[in-house]
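Possible regression after last week's pipeline update?

I re-ran a chain I had predicted before the update to compare outputs. Posting the input and the new output here so someone can diff against the archived version. Not blocking, just want to make sure nothing changed silently.
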Amino acid sequence: MTYAHGLTALTGVALVLAAPMALAQTKTTNQGISDAEIVLGTHEDLSGPVKGWGVPVANGMKMAVEEINAAGGINGRKIRLIVEDSGYDPKRAVLATQKLIEKDQVFSMVGAMGSPTVLAAQDTVLDAGVTQLFPLTSAEFTFKLDPAKPQDRLKFANLLPYVESTRAALKYMVDWKKPKKPCIMH
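New output (post-update):
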């Protein structure tokens, strides 16, 4: 499963490179792209409370990069993936994101993990003109576009929103169990 997430996220990079970036008023960057490579960044929970998910996701992304590079890369460019540890801490995620954008010059943030960490870092990513591809959260802010914010065009989500998955799960459970008095705790 983590390999599939990594491959999906990295395949998305190829789509972004092949398509026009966004409308003219959206600031974009081509940093991190050279004739030889494409630099991608991510922040994962490698040491925090959900490291049991973050470490395999990072490993899956690394495996996908190795596979893509072994097959010749994307349009002859090798992918270089830089993984930073956010520890599932929003402050660490922002610092990691700033490093990835300013020092490492990443072209795109790919598969960053967690609602609080992605939310904290999202404006940093988008304001720099860097694409946010397939964050590992189903929170509404990752896919809802605000027409007043041109930079929102740089975010691409691929997970079913929490509200939709909860609605589907509840319908399934009610249809299956047929409770007389259903309730939900939140």
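Follow-up from reviewer: compared with the archived run. Residues 32 and 104 are 8 Å apart (CA to CA). Marking as no regression found.
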